[in-house]
């Protein structure tokens, strides 16, 4: 399935938080992406066999017996999921997953993959879920390729756990006069393939006047796009706000990039689950609601400095 999917309209704008909210002490920006399987969880590692898990019986028996939920994730999207200096998978998603694992009595095992193949991997049962800063959209719910409008799969269900918008960033001190998406006409932008940033860039390119083409270069992961911009190969980049803000603060010790303009297109991140796996979907919803109620969710959100993206309940298919 082509993962690219227009998440919202570019007219909708929402500022979720100041750039300074993203600073994470001691975290390093990822420079490469390995292929090995990692157990997620950060500081909240969970014992998959714990007898105290109050929601274990809500899981499908097959998963409960294995004690593992396999998670497809593009582990190169700091601070949402990335590898720290020791190679451990850390970030917002692994921490939330680990807290949910305590409720369900399982380990969430993060497996690395490129973003635009995660839903395909879910459909082929390589993964039980996909959790990777994936925006919950109607197109993804219905299995529609937003570029063609054609149905390319049965779609997925989402358990929504966070809210984020999209930002543009440039080299520091060289914003090229870019403040809005329309300012990108006549310039070149780098993005991660299959993301809302690519969707927005494609939509804007169609509106650019003759003689002011917007060039788009898409990469397998956001790290590659940042490297291209850092080297002077583009005028701007775009990522989800938490990721863009984290790159601005950490890349080159904060000397490489700057955010420009306002964050736009605020929408929910969702945990993707196959349409026919409603028992797992509902178990995840119950676990997320439980950690919201007991305060673990808020602790994680505050740890990563992204409080303005917090949700107060686990919605299913809340994206538009």
What is the fold's blueprint, element by element?
Elements lengths: L36 E3 L21 H6 L1 E6 L8 E2 L5 E2 L1 H13 L2 E6 L5 H6 L5 E2 L7 H5 L13 E16 L16 E5 L3 H12 L7 E5 L2 H9 L5 E5 H10 L6 E18 L3 H17 L1 H8 L11 E2 L4
Total domain modules: 2
- Major sheet: 10 strands, mixed
State the name of the first-level CATH class of the largest domain: Alpha Beta
Q: Find the CATH superfamily of the largest domain.
A: Periplasmic binding protein-like II
Q: Please, how many helices? A: 9
**Could you say what the CATH topology of the largest domain is called?**
D-Maltodextrin-Binding Protein, domain 2
Shape: globular
Give the proportion of residues in helices.
25-40%
Q: What is the number of beta strands?
A: 12
Order of helices and strands: EHEEEHEHEHEEHEHEHEHHE
The radius of gyration over CA amounts to 19 Å
Note the beta-strand portion. 15-25%
Distance between the termini: 19 Å
Low-confidence stretches: 1-50
Report on the architecture of this protein:
The protein is of the alpha/beta class. The protein contains nine helices and twelve strands. Strand 8, helix 5 and strand 9 form a beta-alpha-beta unit. The N terminus is likely disordered.
Features of this protein?
single chain; 320 residues; alpha/beta; D-Maltodextrin-Binding Protein, domain 2; 2 domains; two-stranded antiparallel ribbon; 27% helix; globular; disordered N terminus
